[in-house]
Structure formats: C-alpha cells, structure tokens
Amino acid sequence: xxxxxxxxxxxxxxxxxxxxxxxxxxxxxxxxxxxxxxxxxxxxxxxxxxxxxxxxxxxxxxxxxxxxxxxxxxxxxxxxxxxxxxxxxxxxxxxxxxxxxxxxxxxxxxxxxxxxxxxxxxxxxxxxxxxxxxxxxxxxxxxxxxxxxxxxxxxxxxxxxxxxxxxxxxxxxxxxxxxxxxxxxxxxxxxxxxxxxxxxxxxxxxxxxxxxxxxxxxxxxxxxxxxxxxxxxxxxxxxxxxxxxxxxxxxxxxxxxxxxxxxxxxxxxxxxxxxxxxxx
Length: 280
Hints:
Layout: H1 3-21, E1 23-29, E2 36-41, E3 48-49, E4 57-62, E5 68-73, E6 80-85, E7 92-93, E8 101-106, E9 113-117, E10 125-129, E11 137-138, E12 145-151, E13 157-164, E14 167-174, E15 180-182, E16 190-195, E17 201-206, E18 213-218, E19 225-226, E20 235-239, E21 245-250, E22 253-258, E23 264-268, E24 272-279
Antiparallel strand pairs: 1-2, 1-24, 2-3, 4-5, 5-6, 6-7, 8-9, 9-10, 10-11, 12-13, 13-14, 14-15, 16-17, 17-18, 18-19, 20-21, 21-22, 22-23
C-alpha cells in the first residue's frame, strides 16, 4: 500500500471521528435524585446539566436547527411542554391550563411541535403548535390511547404508540384525521419509535422475541428486521448522523452501537435515558 493510499485512509478515519465528536446528545437523567435534562458531546464528554428543579424534566428533543430543546415537565403541578436554549437559558413554557401535555417532537421543518394532550379527551390526542406555543391545532380525535407522536418529513403521516388495554403497538395516522393503521401486531409490545432522518425507516423497541430489543421497519410497516441481539433489555433508540450507528439506552446508561459489528461504546451510565442526537 503506497503512502498516498495510507494518507487517504487516515484522513477518512479522522473525518469519521470528527463527525461523531461534533454531535451532541440531549438526555434525561435521575443521577441527582430526580429526572433533569442534560447534554453531552457525541463521545460522552462534557456532560452538562441544563435544568434544575425538584420536579421531573423528561423527553428532551432537539429542534432541527440545533438551537432549542423541547421537553416535558411537571414543575407547575401538571405536565406541560417547555423549550430552552442549548445551555439551559431562555426557558419558555408553551402549554398551560387543563390536561397533561407530554411527548414533544419537532417536525422536520422546525416550524411545528407535535405532542400529546389530554385537554379535550382523557385518553389523549395529538396536537401541533408553533415553537412559541401559539396556533395550537388538534390533529386527532378518536378513542385511541396514544403516545410518542412523530410526524413524517412530508407532513402527511403521524407515527404513534397506541396503548390497547395495556398492550403497546405502533400505528400510522394519515393526515388530516385519518384512521390509525397498525404497523406492528398486538401479540407483543412495540413502542419508543424513532424516525430516520429521511423518514423512510422507523426504529423501535419490541419484546416479540423475549427481551426488549431494537428493530427497524419501513415507514409503512414492511420489512421488519432485528437490530440488536444481546439479550439485554434495550430502550430509547435514536439515529445519529452516521449511517449504521445508533444510540441506545439500557441499564441506566447510553451507548453508541455500530450495527454492522455490534461494537458498543458506553457514553454514560448514571441513570440516563431517552437520548436525542443532533449534529452541531
């Protein structure tokens, strides 16, 4: 192998490391006694606590431009949606009043936040609002118990977790106000969906083979494949900027997992869950 090829391979390896290191991870942790929102870099370094409140702050999610983090908190006596800057400054409460408001996620454009609210129905429906909390619109009105709503990049479909008498499954709702079409079966639990950056694939957690493992399927529910096989309960999968490298949470820690090799790099292990990746 000549020197030019060696230099080319070394440069590619360095570039790959730089892509990982330039990422940032928001997550929830109970390392200090209750759930708060933290961030760390893509290698697990520079952990930073962003919230400090005796109540619980959970489910952080990055805005597409990486300037804000949305999360849910019960700090005012009921669950509401908040946003803040990436250093914890500029806290803004987006929802208030009757009902619990949880499970925020941003649309691909960053122009809307979708979330679950019980303001009009005890089982909860999906709503959307502007990032400042204005222009709230109810997107669903049915009898399903829903959680973790995600909107596909084209804005035409909601992917949700459906709770049917304690059994969790994934469904897709065509907008506006279409019928929920099942993506997974009801003979096992499937939950914690994550949309790939282009919206063509869904990762999720399922116990269909015994322990909680991570699977992926096409956005229409076809071609389901198992991604993890270690037998340890896995939760909260998240895509990173590197194809084939995902975030997983298990045993109170967050890891980077390379799917092709199964190699795992532990980034944190202090009661950490619900990772959200952003390339910054």
